Amino acid sequence: MTTGKRIFTLPWRSRTTIAHDVDAELSFHFDMRIAELRARGLSEGDARQQAAAEFGDLEFTRSYCRREDEHAVHDQRWTDRLTEWRQDLVYAVRTLRRSPGFALASLITLAIAIGANTAVFAVSRAVLLQPLPYADADRLYQINTIWPNQPNSRNQLSPADFADFQRTQTSFTDLGAVVPETAMIWRPASGDPKSLDALDVSSNTFAVLGTRALYGRTLLPGDEIPGHDHRVVLSFDTWQRDFGGDVAVTGRSIILSGASYDVVGVMPRGFTIDEREEIWLPYDQTGTLADVVRARKQHYVRTIGRLKTGITPAHGLADLRTIAARLAAAYPEADSGRTAEMRSLHDVLTGDLRPALLLLQGAAALVLLIACANLANLALSRTMGRRRELATRAALGASRGRLVRQLVTESVVVSIAGGILGVGLAVVGTRSLLALNPTTLPSLFDANVNGGVLAFSLAVSLITGVLFGLLPALDASGGNLHDSLKEGGRGSSGGRASGRARTVLVVAQVALALMLLAGAGLLVRSFAQLTRVTLGYDPNGIVTADLRAAGDRYNDSLQVTAFYDGVIQQLSRMPGVTAVAAVSDVPTRGSSGTALRIDGQENDEARLQDLRYISVHGDFFKTMRIPIVAGRAYDTSDRPDIPETAILNETAAKRYFPKGDVLGHRIRIGPDPNAPWMTVIGIAGDIHTDGLDVPVEPTIYANHRHEAWMRSMSLVMRTSLSAANAGPLIRAAVRAEDPTLAVNNVETLNDVLGQSLASRRFALGLAMSFALIALVLAALGIYGVLAYNVAARTREFGVRIALGASSRGVVSLVVQQGVSASLAGIVIGLAGAALGARLLNGMLFGVTPLDASTYVIVVTVLLVVAVVACAVPAWRATRVDPLTSMRAE
Amino acid sequence: MHRTPPEMLQGTVDILILRAVAWQPMHGYAISRWLDDRSDGVLSVEGAALYQGLHRLERQKLIAAEWGLSENNRKAKYYSLTAAGRARLRTESSTWKTYAAAVHKVLSPA
Q1: Distance CA A591, CA A691 (A)
Q2: CB-CB under 8 Å, A2 with B71
Q3: What pLDDT band is residue A498 in, cutting at 50, 70 and 90?
Q4: Does pTM surpass 0.80?
Q5: Distance in Å, alpha carbon of A90 to nearest chain B alpha carbon
Q6: Contact check, Cβ <8 Å, A72/B27
Q7: With 0-12 CB in 10 A as exposed, 13-18 as middle and 19+ as buried, what is A451?
């Protein structure tokens, strides 16, 4: 029997070593066997031959053994690696548990920072990155007409213009027309009739959007032909709710507003064009186009086009502009001065959210950077204290790479744990953000923490962990570790380099925090300015509702007038209602633009004066409590059959009639140079029609009785009732006048005002929270570094105090260090903020991006916080007992 | 000399190797001698099968290998049983014993 002495274990062997080993092993076998056979008396040759014969297939065995060994080494390599990782992990968790303070501080910081990033990303991914739920949605554009250089004059197309654009354009596969919804009264086989919101769409619209039906078919060209046009497509929700999700519904007939319609299809879940509609009906313009004048002047056709592949947007726009120019020449009374504009459908729907979201994402990233700096600092101080431990491990054979990996593993463990907490925060945060701001986000966008968002936050966590772990790890494992072992103590203050690194981190933190604070400060001041804007009316107690006199009956404008008169009269008799009127545009929802000619003045036909246009029905001024500054409001004497009268706002009166001769003056509005004259009979107070942040422009409050071609109006009702209680009253009044019409958006005027500020409030709230977090983190950062420095310099302070330094001297020594780092950060941060604040330009109101007072306040706040953060460590420095401090170490 | 019978299964070689190194580390040649001695030459395993078995078992971590010095002071590869190998040997042995007893019972005269 043999006994072996252990020489060495087999490490990971290379292929050559393996081959060599196998050969050595096998030749040992042969040598032993041959020696034995020869001992039995066989000749060298015979022994060799017999040994070979006994052995069997040598070549195969040789390669078999090599292969097995190579596999074994490969397996081993992986197990070793996994074992090391596991060791690192276990070790990391163990060390972290030994310093729960560090772990907790890091976890909370990370959870907040990663949570903020995840929450903002969840929203911005949905809004900015996710395509709309249409095929090839990036080629879809909304087409408007607009007066050059007047963004607020954007308007939809008139039916006749739409027809011309559709016929003559060559850059789009097709243009689809969408017309505001009407209510259709559906009479089910059993039960009460109910109202369904219908959207009239040209029969090619579904093809333009590129969405197929879930069941049956969409509307197709031909469906709009009169006599064959009683066809309806159901939305998924309507199909589920009202038709029980019955697949056999396609091909059936249903009764809508007294007529029979064939259900041709059901759209997939979530498909919508206008966000509210329940059914789609074919839209046919032939009837409308018959009335040549009206078909050109009413702009209510929302137009969506799909750009052909290979055509650039610029080319498409040029095409549209050529057509617009031709139309302006051919129909000057309606189209003169108008040109075409196209915006990607995605931009139309995301609207003003894009800059806000990008800014918030930037702010969240800044918070994360500050958090990283903070944690790097914490980790730096911590690893300094662990130099002895690291030196011991290095002495025991751990390579520098292994030590770095160990430390980075620790920070990654913390960052992943923080990330998990952060995602939890983000889920709650996103939900409550959206719950608090239901109108901020169009329902087409589905903001949720899903797989993509999780992947994002995982990546962010990993990067964060590496980011804040790597610097301290490199710093701690570098240099001469053996010195720290020899020094014996807990190490000196840890090289000058790492001291500088910590100071740089503090400077960076302060700079980043200042940028965030400055941004948030500017937004706060803007918001404060906005809430101080004089409205010019009393929004309290006003309930609004959107109406539209839809249907052929209202081609007669007298019917439109009669309808609004009837509704207003009915409602004004109701208890709890003080006054009722109707207006084309509820304040802050916008207005349309028109042109002004003044009797007896030189009117430059090429550059007519701008006038905002609002149409009012009934006593709008009394209802809204808008003062009549001069002259009078409209009354029953302003009948449609006598020459039209006009009321201007104060701004118009001042700007266009500087001599004060406005009352009784005659004006013309609209592009038609031969439009009838209107006599100005009154001046009403200014109101912000286009949003609180848009300055008041010269405006005419036209009399709807004269301009009754406008069918969509909003009711304004001064009442003691809530919106919920006023809704049924309004619906009853409208139903009594015309049961086919729908009432939409019953809400208080204060809610409308709130919505106009919703995205601003949304951004402001988040920016403020981010700035606050940044401030706290920066304060913690300053505190951490100073506290560490004071602890490391205990002995020095002891000596100073023993030699007679006053506590004031010691305090100033410490505070000076903190304040000088903060000041450096403030200077850098100011420069960064001044550059970055330009990005805020579109979101500011009443303050410039370089608003001095904001910066002064922000700098003061930061300085105060910095001094407070310095104070505690400084106080501690003065408490150093000279004797104890010198005995220590 | 006996050659490994062709019907001698791979599993049989494996369990014999495990048994051989159960008490002390051995190199390949010693294992083949030990098997020869213990079975009075009946279970003489062919060299090819033996070394293939050794490397296979090493990869499965049932045995571990170390280079050492042989009795005549030559470098030799020593194999020893791992914990996993010991456990495998235990289960395999009892399976084998049951199997052999059953075969024996069937072949015995009634």
Answers
A1: 10
A2: yes
A3: low
A4: no
A5: 24
A6: no
A7: exposed
Please name the member of A22, A56, A64 whose beta carbon is closest to the beta carbon of B47.
A56
Give the 3-state secondary structure of A71-131: HHHHHHHHHHHHHHHHHHHHHHHHHHHHCHHHHHHHHHHHHHHHHHHHHHHHHHHHHHHCC
Minimum mean pLDDT range among A150-154, A515-519, A535-539: A150-154
The reply to whether residue B48 touches residue A32, judged by beta carbons under 8 angstroms, is no
Average pLDDT score, chain B: 86
A309 at interface of B, judged by CB pairs closer than 8 A = no
- Partner-chain contact A2 B66, CB within 8 Å: no
By C-alpha distance, the chain B residue nearest A67 is B55
Q: Is B55 on the interface with A (CB under 8 A)?
A: yes
Q: Which residues of B43-73 are buried (b: 16+ CB within 10 A; e: fewer)?
A: bbbbbbbbbbbbbbbbbbebbbbbbbbbeee
- Alpha-carbon dihedral angle through residues B72, B73, B75, B79, given to the nearest 10 degrees: 60
Instruction: Out of B24, B27, B66, name the one closest to residue A9 (CB).
Output: B66
Tokens found for residue A759: 């995205």
Q: How far is A73 from chain B (nearest CA, A)?
A: 8
Give the least confident one: A355-364, A733-742, A789-798: A789-798
- B6: its two tokens: 């062709």
Q: Give the pLDDT confidence score for residue A888 in this predicted structure.
A: 55
Question: What are the beta bridge partners of residue A838?
Answer: none
Report yes or no: A282 and A203 within 8 Å, Cβ to Cβ.
Answer: yes
Tokens encoding A775: 């401030």
pLDDT band at A397 (very low <50, low <70, confident <90, very high): confident
pLDDT tens, position by position, A725-749:
999 999 899 989 988 787 878 999 9
Distance from CA of B56 to the nearest CA of A (A): 6
Question: Alpha helices of A42-57 — where are they, by DSSP H?
Answer: 44-55
CB contact under 8 A, B27 and A24: no
Interface test with B, best of A7, A27, A32, A34 (most B CBs within 10 A): A32
Nearest CA-CA distance, residue B74 and chain A, Å: 8
Can you point out the beta strands (E) in A488-576? 542-548
| A67-86 residue pLDDT tens | 999 998 898 888 888 888 88
Task: Please state, in angstroms and rounded to a whole number, the distance separating the CA atoms of residues A405 and A717.
Answer: 70
What CA–CA distance (Å, rounded) separates B21 from B19?
6
* Distances A436 to A113, A122, A431 between C-alpha atoms, Å: 21, 16, 9
Separation in Å, CA of B110 to nearest CA in chain A:
39
